[in-house]
């Protein structure tokens, strides 16, 4: 088993050495975006210094090396999530775009009036709104898997939502607002018993849990580069070849075509059919460096470390009087959401910020989750592999101080 050298890992992330408001930065907003190791930062500089050129176009040297590097990332993603074919990996702007591609292309082609789409009560807005837009357009309907007061999905209720009108299921692997890890394999199998394809939003899973799309049998899987130590502006839609092939393209433009005349256009093969226009080349290439970085440490080792940290942070936070956890699922990953009754989460966030501690406050783009718990928002502490127990202790001291001022 590989060892986890936290000092070395922290040294890889230059931003962790800076101060905020005169205090060492303690960064607990990893659910929003993770920091980047110097391996990724250097790769971005190297791209612009050594190879900047458009991809999939030129015969010249720079275009060839940037195209090769971009395509290397596709193969790294394929290996990282265990996809069967590299052309099943569509490079997108992020999770949001990946979900929108499925809603737009699969939805418009195969989902009709009165059909139903199942999502869950704990979705990020980006896994709600694209489906609502589709429903507005096509007259289809959303069915929502309810959750219990611990923030766990009700699997029996899920089973009962299926009918011959169900055309797609889409749910998150890990809730960004609650930290719940859903029983993804079981839920996919249930949908497949009804011959219904499944999209899994992997935005909060990809950096914490090893993903094997083939073993899961998932039909579509979406994630973002910036939440897995990679650049912003890049993400991935994995789709089964058979489904991607029968979907119409997303946007029209360069790269996604085979032949264009004013009479008729024929479309390119996978994956290019879904990659119109110049992509975010440097981010695409450097997503590969982020994958290399994660693999150099090992997701299994990262997972063990983060689980220990999550348990420590949860137990230290529960020592604080008045804290109420929102989301107490039996199976959780790297996210702790809480409220202190009578205190606005925002005020806690502002005081913590003055102490150099970055947390997220608010609804976390999951307003229906907040409505379900009848709260306007939470304080969210979300962990990454570079966080430490010492940082948790700083958070606890900061919180105690904040609450002395606010309560
Ligand atoms: N789904 C989940 C569960 C998320 O946490 C996020 C980001 N907060 C998204 C989707 C959207 O990701 P992006 O903004 O990178 O497209």
UniProtKB/TrEMBL annotation:
Please name the top-level EC class of this enzyme: transferase
**Aminotransferase class V domain mapped to chain residues:** 26-395
Q: What is this protein's name?
A: Cysteine desulfurase
- Entry-linked InterPro entries: Aminotrans_V_dom (IPR000192), Aminotrans_V_PyrdxlP_BS (IPR020578), Cys_dSase_SufS (IPR010970), Cysteine_dSase (IPR016454), PyrdxlP-dep_Trfase (IPR015424), PyrdxlP-dep_Trfase_major (IPR015421), PyrdxlP-dep_Trfase_small (IPR015422)
Provide this UniProt record's keywords sorted from A to Z.
Answer: Pyridoxal phosphate, Transferase
Q: Which family does it belong to?
A: Belongs to the class-V pyridoxal-phosphate-dependent aminotransferase family. Csd subfamily.
Q: Name one GO biological process term.
A: cysteine metabolic process
Which branch of life, at top level?
Bacteria
Give a short account of what the protein does. Answer: Catalyzes the removal of elemental sulfur and selenium atoms from L-cysteine, L-cystine, L-selenocysteine, and L-selenocystine to produce L-alanine.
Q: Which cofactor does it need?
A: pyridoxal 5'-phosphate
MF annotations from Gene Ontology: cysteine desulfurase activity; pyridoxal phosphate binding
Q: Does the keyword Transferase apply?
A: yes
PROSITE patterns associated with the record = AA_TRANSFER_CLASS_5 (PS00595)
Upper lineage: Bacteria, Pseudomonadati, Bacteroidota, Sphingobacteriia, Sphingobacteriales
Q: What is its EC number?
A: 2.8.1.7
Task: Check the record and name the Gene3D superfamilies matching this protein.
Answer: Aspartate Aminotransferase, domain 1, Type I PLP-dependent aspartate aminotransferase-like (Major domain)
Question: Keyword Transferase: yes or no?
Answer: yes
Recorded catalytic reaction(s): these are: (sulfur carrier)-H + L-cysteine = (sulfur carrier)-SH + L-alanine
């Amino acid at each position: 088993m590989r060892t986890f050298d936290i000092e070395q890992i922290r040294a890889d992330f230059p931003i962790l050495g800076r101060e905020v408001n005169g205090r060492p930065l303690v960064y607990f907003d990893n659910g929003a975006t993770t920091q980047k190791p110097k391996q990724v930062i250097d790769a971005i500089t190297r791209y612009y210094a050594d190879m900047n050129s458009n991809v999939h176009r030129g015969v010249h040297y720079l275009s060839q090396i940037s195209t090769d590097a971009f395509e290397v990332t596709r193969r790294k993603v394929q290996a990282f999530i265990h996809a069967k074919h590299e052309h099943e990996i569509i490079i997108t702007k992020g999770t949001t775009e990946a979900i929108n591609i499925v809603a737009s292309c699969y939805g418009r082609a195969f989902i009709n009036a009165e059909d139903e789409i199942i999502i869950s009560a704990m979705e990020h807005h980006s896994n709600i709104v694209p489906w609502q837009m589709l429903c507005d357009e096509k007259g289809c309907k959303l069915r929502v898997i309810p959750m219990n007061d611990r923030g766990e999905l009700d699997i029996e209720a899920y089973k009962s939502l299926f009918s011959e009108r169900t055309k797609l299921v889409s749910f998150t692997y890990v809730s960004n607002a609650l930290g719940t890890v859903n029983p993804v394999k079981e839920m996919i199998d249930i949908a497949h018993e009804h011959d219904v394809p499944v999209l899994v939003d992997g935005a909060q899973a990809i950096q914490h849990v090893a993903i094997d799309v083939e073993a899961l049998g998932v039909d579509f899987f979406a994630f973002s580069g910036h939440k897995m130590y990679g650049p912003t502006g890049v993400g991935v839609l994995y789709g089964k070849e058979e489904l991607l092939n029968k979907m119409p393209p997303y946007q029209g433009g360069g790269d996604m075509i085979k032949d264009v005349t004013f009479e008729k256009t024929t479309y390119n093969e996978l994956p290019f059919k879904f990659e119109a226009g110049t992509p975010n080349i440097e981010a695409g290439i450097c997503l590969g460096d982020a994958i290399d970085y994660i693999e150099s440490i090992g997701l299994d080792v990262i997972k063990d470390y983060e689980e220990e940290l999550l348990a420590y942070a949860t137990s230290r936070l529960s020592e604080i009087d008045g804290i109420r956890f929102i989301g107490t699922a039996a199976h959780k990953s790297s996210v702790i959401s809480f409220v202190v009754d009578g205190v606005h989460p925002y005020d806690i966030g502002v005081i913590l910020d003055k102490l150099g501690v970055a947390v997220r406050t608010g609804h976390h783009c999951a307003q229906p989750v907040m409505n379900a718990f009848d709260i306007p928002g939470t304080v969210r502490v979300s962990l990454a592999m570079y966080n430490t127990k010492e940082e948790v202790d700083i958070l606890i001291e900061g919180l105690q101080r904040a609450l002395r001022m606010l309560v």
